[in-house]
Amino acid sequence: MVRNIVILGGNSHPELVDNVCNNLGIAPGERILTKFSSGESRCEIKDSVRGKDVYIIQSAADSVNDGFIDLCIMVSACKTGSAKRVTAVMPLFPYSRQPDVPYKKAGAPLSKASHPTKNGYTFESVPGTPHPGITRTQSLGPDINGLDTKLARTKLAENGVNGTTCNKADGPQTPSGAERRNAPSGSSAFNYTTHDYQNHSLLANFKSKPGYKQWVAQAGTLVADLLTCAGADHHVLTECRMDLHDPQYQGFFDVPVDNLYGKPLLKRYIQQHIPNYKEAVVISPDAGGAKRATAVADELDMDFALIHKERRPTKYSEMRNASMMLVGDVRDRVCILIDDLIDTGNTITRAAKLLKKEGATAIYALVTHGILSGDAIPRINASAIDKLIVTNTVPQLEHKRLCTKLVTLDVSPVFAEAIRRVHHGESISVLFQFN
Ligand SMILES: O=P(O)(O)OC[C@H]1O[C@@H](O)[C@H](O)[C@@H]1O
Fold first, then answer.
1. Where in this protein does the record put region Disordered (predicted)?
2. What ipTM score was computed for the predicted complex, to two decimals?
3. Does the N-terminal or the C-terminal CB of the chain have fewer CB atoms within 10 Å?
4. Atom of ligand 1 minimally distant from the CA of 286
């Protein structure tokens, strides 16, 4: 039991809040967090926070923007209520993929290879990544028959929007988890929008202007600043989040930041659940994640391979195509893909497809954050991945119902211990030193 501490939860992940509190032996603090009909957030902290050490747990799940504003408002409310210190605990940090620029001069860097190679093999995952305007025409269940054809009938084409300026505000919205859950099977009620920067038809409408450098908002930095502002008067906002996409991001904050790691949990899963794991190969699905994956391979004394994405202009298109190439040998071996997050599932399913083609006998994908947005779940169900292992930094109950390949690892003991340590002024890095 920890004293003089208040744990509050946002609306993003109530189950994790309860589990963290159980681990600490305290009840979650009472608060009201609702919305006015206009959509504005309303927050009341019902427990006294005067002189207390307050921790607010909010992950970047479902309505990411709303959740972030709720968090800022809660931080501010606690400050106004004379909390001694307020710590934002973010198991998945919002906008952490956007401190860097997603565009290169010639357009989006992650454009897909749309032409089959000589032997008819393509690197596309199934179903394809949805683009803005694509109407999702069936439920998120495992049956994906006909989805590709239906996805091809894009709303952009139906509305004749292609070739005209696209107003993002008028575009389709990603449904919330609750909306997805309540959608009747076969419903065409929702449009899925993910990874706008991959949409060729949208990009084609935005010609770069000569003599002008295209700027892309670095939203991640702004989010860091906003959070600090919400409780900055005492310069005591600390952050805990697991496996930051870009570790340099830590330096953007003016306040202490504690970064937690999912690696020990993933490593333990490999050791305890993958038979003869020493004979398996650890693989990074792209060069950016190589350091992360080699760390696991080195610590477990395992072989390592890398999937390299190559981007070249082709005759067929002015856009760039990405092809994937395996560096290493996986023939007749079990493969363990390691990544920090799975969003649409495009990266990991394409990697799995390549590994299968190169002779892998079984494929595990171990990923810290299982966002699984859009059509990620049918895509995983249809993929060469045998088991997908994710932590519960975002809610996984509904995902598990829809995907039998999914295994989840509980992060609540790690977050509870981190909170206990921050509260007592103990080291956080020691937590990960021998793991
Ligand atoms: O392909 P999806 O799942 O949408 O996105 C996940 C990938 O995008 C990258 O930022 C992550 O590191 C990961 O490799």
1. 106-143, 158-191
2. 0.98
3. N
4. 14
